[in-house]
Amino acid sequence: MIIKQSPEDFRVKEILNLKFSEGGYFYYLLKKKNWNTIDIVERLEKFFKTKAGFAGNKDKNAVTEQFISLFKISQKKAEKFKLNDVSLEFLGKGDKPISLGMLEGNFFEITLREVKEELPSVSFIENYFDEQRFGKNNALIGKFIVQRKFKEASKIIGKDVFSLSKRRLRFYLSAYQGYLFNEYLKEYIKEHFKEYVKDYVKVKYSLGELFFTKEFTKNFKISLVNFDTKSDGIYKKMLRREKIKQSDFFLREMPSLVDESVYRDAFAFVEQFSSKFFAKENKQIVSFYLQKGSYATVVIKKMLSSLEMFKYK
Questions:
Q1: Domain span at residue 250?
Q2: pLDDT at 312
């Protein structure tokens, strides 16, 4: 099976309830292809010499639509910004910048190619972070930052880590926290399904394996590892394996990265799911809605794992 044979195979639209007024923030719909959000935002800020607000990071290898705000950058000024496969559509004005907390969710339409048999629908996913969060070395750079191995981090990045913006630094730190979240959820599944080996399926990804279960039991919150996280047995075992301590996340050298713990649902529901299978073309087109922060590629991995689970019956 092939995902993202072309950017057009992976389409994402943000769902966000904007409130318009006569404020100083100009709201735009940013449409892009083959660009990641942070790179575009940094180019916009450099070009207009103002801060850009956005509600979520979107994939590079995709066709995406998301909302951004630019302070006192009118539609006429915005039209001067030119970049291949990027456009800005003026929506209106408001009195607040668009921020991460404003995102409600995302609607996806994904074309799967070289599909030999129709993949089953899914109603929920284990709420893992996926490849888009990690890139090639993002989690490793984040770990080096936590370990105070700033020279090693700088070597991978290609520039002094202390010269990076707060946004970039937080991106690397969050990537490592995302990896640890995945490891925690895996351990939880192993502990709670260990008597029923075939009740979960392993699926490989760039940083190891993800475990998927047959049935949803109950949801709960997991903290992204931080200095103030309430530790339990799973966390303690995981941090020993990583050779780090919770206190390492209190980065006095980078005070802008010191923040309180953030909690994330262990599971996420897949809503408005629909699917069309084209046997002659060996392709399947699926669409669905996910809450903010959840990954469509995890839905696809879950669909694959569910196919394996059905074979147990």
A1: 124-269
A2: 41
